[in-house]
Structure prediction request, 113 residues.
Amino acid sequence: MTKPEWMSGGRDLIREQVRERDKYQCQNCKKKWKEGTRRFDIHHLNGVFGRKSRGYDRKVDIKKLITLCHRCHLNLPEVRNKMKLAYRKAKRQKVDKFPPTVHGGAGVEKYET
Prediction:
């Protein structure tokens, strides 16, 4: 039987310790995590996220981390802004790589790039 990732130490272990400290409960809406479902998110109170956050998931920084359910985490203004930026970036890259074409369908218009 293989161990869960978080048992191997490092970042996943710190995050699991935060969840345990917070009693597997969202610190915003107080929703309780149910075993067998996706683990709740860990949020950085200092505003660091993404790849930059990996260096901040250390035992000494555990007070700067909190447990949030997915809904509360995704509704944070900084997370919503990050998602909007990522969406815009992906949309620009897709347009740059795949110029629009007319597929002959009704209502499909060609536009200039």
About this structure: Helices lie at 10-21, 70-74, 77-97. The chain has one domain: 9-97. The beta strands are 41-44, 65-68. The first strand starts at residue 41 and ends at 44.
